[in-house]
Structure formats: C-alpha cells, structure tokens
Amino acid sequence: MQGESQRGTEPIAWLRGLVPEAVAVAAPILVERAEGVWLEDETGRRYLDMAAGIGTLNVGHRPSEVVAAVREQLERFIHTCFSVAPYRLYGEVVERLVALTPGSFPKKGVLFNSGAEAVENAVKIARRATGRNTVLCFSGAFHGRTLLTLTMTAKVSSYKRGFGSFCPDVVRIPYPYCYRCPVGCEPSSCGTACTRLLDEAMAGWADPEDLAAVVIEPELGEGGFVPAPPEFLRSLRDLCDRTGAVFVADEVQTGFGRTGKMFAIEHSGVVPDLVTVAKSIAAGLPLSAVVGRAELLDAVQPGGLGGTYGGNPVACAAALAVLDMMVRDDLPARAMRLGGRIGARLESWRDRYPDRIGDVRGLGAMKAVELVRDPATREPDPELARRWARACQDEGVVVLTAGVRGNVVRLLPPLVISDRELDEAMDRMERALGRVVARGGEV
To answer: Among 102, 183, 196, 317, which residue's CB has the most CB atoms within a 10 Å radius?
Structure first.
C-alpha cells in the first residue's frame, strides 16, 4: 500500500519517497528510541546526540520527571485552547518565566508554539507599543521561517531563496563577528569599533524616530555560534534607551542554561525589554514565549496576541518539569563546566590542525569550530565541515553544521550528559576529524 512503512527497504529512500528534500535531514537515520543523550535507530545502532534537536533537549531525551508530568496531564485534559477556556498551567509557566528572565520591573508573558512565532509576536508587540515600524536585526541571524522572521533571517541559500518578496521596514547591519570583523579589526585591538555601525545605521539606513525594535541573538545560532561582545550589547541597550526602541533578546537557542547562564544576555549585564524563548523550555514539546515589560504587552488590544495551540497544557506541564530540573540541578552551572571541558578539547584540535581550524568559540556548552582552507585568508571550508559531520555519524555521534558559509561544526550536547559520555563523544569526533583531514577531506 502506498505510504506504508516498509522496514525492509532503505529507510531514507522510503522517507524521501514521501517527504520532499526541502525538509533537510542532517543525520539520515530513522530513530526508534531515545534516552538521555543517546539515540537508537531502527537497526538498533546507538548514537551520542551532540545536536539535541538543535538545542531543544537541554534536559536530555525523555527525562523521567517530564514523562511523569506529561502522563499526568494527559489523564486530565489535552487541549481546550487557552483563549476559549483557560487553565492554571499556562499562568504557572508564565509566572516561572517572569521570575527567571532578567529585569526587576513588572513583567508579563504570552505563550506560543515555536521560536518563529515568539519572535514575530515580539515584533508585533514592539510595533504596537511604540507606534513605529522599523526593525533592526543583524547579519548571520536566524529568527524563523514565517514571512516576517524569514525577512529577519540572514542565510539566503538555505532559507530564503525563491521565497520573496519579503517584509518592508526591516534593516540589517553586520553582526560583531570577531573572527571575521565587519570593520576589519582584530579582537586584540578592536575595542568597540563595531559599535560605529550602529551610528551609521541610524544616520543613513534607518530613521531612529521610526525604530520600533532591535532584535539580536546574544550568541548567533544558525549563524555559527558567534557570541556578541558585551560592549556591543550594552551599546544596543544605549541605542534603545536613546531612541525609545524595544530591545528584544532572541534566546530561542541560547536560553535555559545552554551558555552557562539561564539566559545568554545575562553574560553582558544587559537587561532586555522583551525575551523570546522556545526550544528547551519543554524538552521537545512545542512551546515558546514572549516575556518582558508588562506595559509593552499590555499595549496590545484584546485578541491581538494568541493562537489555537499556544500554551498547550501538555507542553506547559512538560515546561514546569523542565524548569524544576533546571533549578534543582543547577544546569547553567553544569553548562559552564561542560563548556570548559569541550573548549579544552577543541583548542587541542586547533593546535593539532592549525591550517584547518580557524576559530574555536562559544559560551558555556554552546561551542563551535570554524573550518578554513587557508588560515591566512580565512577562506571557509564548508565541504570539510560536511565531511566531518558525516564521519562523526559513522563514528556514532550526531553533530550539526552551521554558519552562513556552512563551514562551522557546532556542539549542543544535552546538559545532563555525563563526563564519561562527553569524553566518549569527543573521542569519536576526534577520530572522525583525523580521518577526514588525513584523507584530504574524504570520508
């Protein structure tokens, strides 16, 4: 029968007969089970998961606390639509987020399904509250795939090609990418030179009197795990204060302990007006939120925010269990320790392959390696990144590439990974790297 799963056939060939290649697949396996930091495919082969659902699984696969919370909620009710018949779980999640996000001012929050929805609604809130239109965002950004967030997203080849025209009133300036400095400086002598781009933007690219929001990832996600210098983030805060714009921190991938703080913006001491969260908030169930200044959210008319599935009660139950684990086990501190361990291994690889590894970077357990063909010119080597990722899979480790040029290999291990499991994953990655470098990039 057409569409029937045939386990005797090549699994990806079967899948591609049903799902278009427009839905990209990083690891061509079919997962049967997952537990902790491990994936198991239909053949019984196990993989260490260093991708964690693109950062959605900071507490790992199927933690018992989340499974129990979801099971208990399923026995009560699955869905009502909060806008029709509300329930306490929604408010409890918002209450926890209000307490955890930076800022001592009065805050409120609203729940959605995905990171893209959260970012799009943050822009809606900023526009409604300020009565302005212009949104300032940055090169390398990934904010989602809806029309507005795709406009704000920077990578054309994978995400934007053929989907225009895009939304007006979105202005993009270079992100402070220290390895590839947009103003031609070296990090040792840069100071805050890249902040001059903000003045140029306000002088010629955007009208400061129409600036509604500045939206930034404190560490680029899809753009290659590039942390923004704290000085730059403070300059953005100053810009928003001068112009009356809303500072939006996109913490969809960086949030919930990933970088060694509950939210990455905290490394800079900057307090945003709105924070967008998603991914690891609910251990893989669809849930996102916009949290921030109460007066901004209250500026939107009744019915202006919401959605049929936003804040689904099952996802909310999962989120409350996740937040309990985050605090109980101090997972941000665990991320810092993991980051030190990962960073030391990555630096040792750079010492061994200085002609292929151009940069090692990232906050906490959000680390990446940038691969180059020539360290002098810093010419990107996306093919080496792809082959290394493929070789890692052969070794039984799932990793992802990233970067506007596709030449970055990024690591997002679940924060519950043990030291032994992490060392095993890094050993396997090291073997894979040695193999592809020794063979000139061939697997």
So the answer is: 317
